[in-house]
Amino acid sequence: MRLAGYLRGAREDPCAIINGFLKVRGMEPVQVFSDPMGEFRSLRSLQNAVKHELYDAVILPSYDDLGDDRYSRLENELFFRRNGVRLIFIKRPAGDGRRGIIIAAKRFSSFVTEWDQSFGLSMPEYGNAQYAGSNIPFGYTVKDGAAVVEPNEAACVEAIFEGYIAGKSIKEILASIPDAVSKRGKRFSNMTVKTVLKNPHYLGMRTKKGILLPPAVKYGTWLKAKARLEREYGREQTLKPYFGRVYLKTPMRFARYVKSPSNKEPVVYSDALEKALESLIAAIAKDDGTLAAARVHIETELAEAEKAYHEAVKENNRILSEFRSALDRITEGDRSEKAQDELERLTDLKAFSAMRIRRILSEKELYSIGIDKLCEFLDRAKIISELSVEDRAFITEAFVDSVRIRDGRVTAKILDPASGRSVPKELEGIIG
Fold first, then answer.
1. Superfamily of domain 133-217
2. How far apart are the first and last CA of the chain?
């Protein structure tokens, strides 16, 4: 692990804070970058080093060290994560469960929104890997080393989904796309159409071979097609548990059906764990206070973002004015070190001011979700046990922060919409 340190604010010895923490754990000292409040020079140096792959992990005293305000912190967090850098906080940041639920509800309405594409938490930038044409699904092509949507094929995919959710038969869909040809040069058949309808990668995902695909179908459309497929062809069974982020202290193994374990390790029955999580999620979704808390949260966030946006624009105009004046002084012949430093400082401020405005606008877009969309999402969470595996995984991710197995006890941290915090709930009957 190539580790660097970063912190903000006035501290007597920045290196001692981070390297002292590492020394106690028997780790080697690291390069520490630090900035006073309102300055970004060292952060820019660290980001340039990250771009050149000099570091793959950054340790910080707290989440607040990522920026002077919440919007800058979100933007900087996104920068590091998109560049494959792991963030390690000495003081663990507090989560915001309400925000996670809003994100899930927003994605539910169209899966990959404009917010996701620009600033999403789990949408890496396209074009970070090299792709082979033979590995690209129908509907995509390779351009400049990245997977992109192929317009003609994407139109065919859209026609298949729209026709299917409109009630057309597979035969009628084939008749509407007579010229459709697969990547292997074969005409579409019944099985090809079903394969397209079942493929979740059209939502915008990374394939098994690591190929990142942009979205070609909205999540709502894919859900409707999925529901009809299950009605007509039966629900697909899977042995893979859909919950995630399980932390273990003692050796454990998961099993759906275990009659006589051959060893003495405790067995976690994933069916029981899934049902217990579903019951917790359904109870939260049915609580009348959940929607009310989410509504207040949305209104508060929108009001704060609107106020922050006007302040950011005003501050950005001031910085631009000072930047132009500093640039004019240099172009007029002032080559002093003081003038150069001032221009560099204002260049950093200008870049981070624009970044802050982008993040504020993205938050406004995120929290512009309609209450009807939020209600629709919570209604589905109320009947989570009746949904498909994909749907249950999607909703579980929104409400369950983690599942920890320790000393023979299973504890799930559930995101509470009322407080926005993770609430531990002990689950029983999970370990055999």
1. Putative Large Serine Recombinase; Chain B, Domain 2 (3.90.1750.20)
2. 37
Q: How many CA atoms lie within 13 A of 180 on its CB side?
A: 23
- For 3-93, CATH gives 3.40.50.1390
Could you tell me the maximum CA-CA distance found in the chain, to the nearest angstrom?
85
Residue of 64, 214, 189 lying closest to 131 (CA atoms): 214
How do beta strands 246-248 and 400-406 pair? parallel
Query: What confidence category does residue 321 fall into, taking pLDDT thresholds of 50, 70 and 90?
Result: very high
Residue 364 tokens, joined: 């406004």
Identify the pLDDT of residue 10: 64
* Alpha helices in 10-150, H assignment, sequence order: 14-24, 41-51, 70-82, 97-110, 114-119
Q: What is the pLDDT of residue 210?
A: 61
The neighbour count for residue 42, using CB atoms within 10 Å, is 17
> CA nearest 229: which of 283, 190, 270, 202?
190
pLDDT tens readout for residues 154-190: 889 999 999 998 888 888 988 888 888 887 788 888 8
Mind spelling out the 3-state secondary structure of 122-185? CCCCCCCCCCCHHHCCCCEEEECCEEEECHHHHHHHHHHHHHHHCCCCHHHHHHHCCCCECCCC
Question: Is the CB of residue 265 less than 8 Å from the CB of residue 253?
Answer: yes
Residues 6+ apart with CB under 8 A from 31: 4, 5
Instruction: Write down the pLDDT at residue 117.
Output: 45
Q: How far is it, in rounded angstroms, from Cα 4 to Cα 57?
A: 6
Q: What residues have CB less than 8 Å from 400, skipping those under 6 apart?
A: 243, 245, 277, 280, 281, 412, 413, 414, 415
Listed by start position, the domains of the chain span 3-93, 133-217, 246-286+382-427
User: Among residues 77, 78, 45, which one has the least CA distance to residue 60?
Assistant: 77
